[in-house]
Design a protein that fits this description.
alpha/beta; six-stranded parallel sheet
Length: 215
């Protein structure tokens, strides 16, 4: 368990949902709910004010929705990792959220203990995608080429790093597995994204799955 609790911000337009999430999360010894917001714009403002570790974000909200909020957080270079918690399963919702920078996507009917585990996983640097969510994004990548043919530009070490990203490993875990410094791993990750013309670790992980680089 970490020395400091994981600081979580709840962003959902339904007060009942926020209250339910808070009630459950507050009994977790390693998770602290530091604030709430009822729409995306307020969520961005609160994230800048409170600097949470993880934001639980709904997608469909009045005014500024979750996808627009994700884009704004990325533009602000806010370090919070965003876990989408929603009832919407359509590909037209899943794919834009992941493209906008979400680190995970789960549904509101998720088991409470599994949700706590998801928060810990995302906070640790992992990419968290339920199988059907991964399938939606992979299908979208297939329809646009998804970097096919660029894999030959990767070095053997970069392919090793990419495989571990696809396994859900954080930079720290990759560094330990390959006996490298975290700084070196970050450099490899940046090179991978540049060579494959991908925006983030989520896309890199899915590229690796599609091209058989997972363990």
């Amino acid at each position: 368990m970490a020395d400091k609790p994981i600081r979580v911000l709840l962003v959902d337009d339904h007060q009942v949902v926020r209250r339910g999430l808070r009630t459950f999360l507050e009994v977790q010894d390693d998770i602290e709910v530091v604030g709430e917001a009822s729409d995306g714009a307020e969520g961005v403002a609160r994230a800048e004010e409170l600097q949470p570790d993880v934001v639980l974000m709904d997608v469909k909200m009045p005014g500024t929705d979750g996808i627009e909020a994700l884009k704004r957080l990325r533009e602000l270079a806010n370090p919070a990792r965003v876990l989408i918690v929603t009832s919407f399963t359509e590909q037209r919702t899943v794919v834009p959220a992941l493209r906008a920078g979400a680190c995970g996507y789960v549904y509101k009917d998720i088991d409470p203990d599994a949700l706590a585990g998801a928060i810990r996983s995302v906070h640790a640097g992992h990419v968290l995608l339920q199988p059907e969510v991964a399938g939606a994004l992979l299908a979208q990548d297939d329809s646009h080429g998804g970097g096919t043919g660029r894999g030959s530009t990767l070095t053997e070490r970069e392919r090793e790093v990419l495989g571990l990203i696809a396994d859900g490993r954080s930079n720290r875990e990759i560094a330990r597995a390959l006996v490298l410094s975290e700084k070196t791993v970050k450099t490899h990750v940046s090179n991978i994204l540049m060579k494959l013309d991908l925006a983030d670790r989520t896309q890199a992980a899915l590229w690796a799955v599609r091209h058989g680089l997972t363990g």
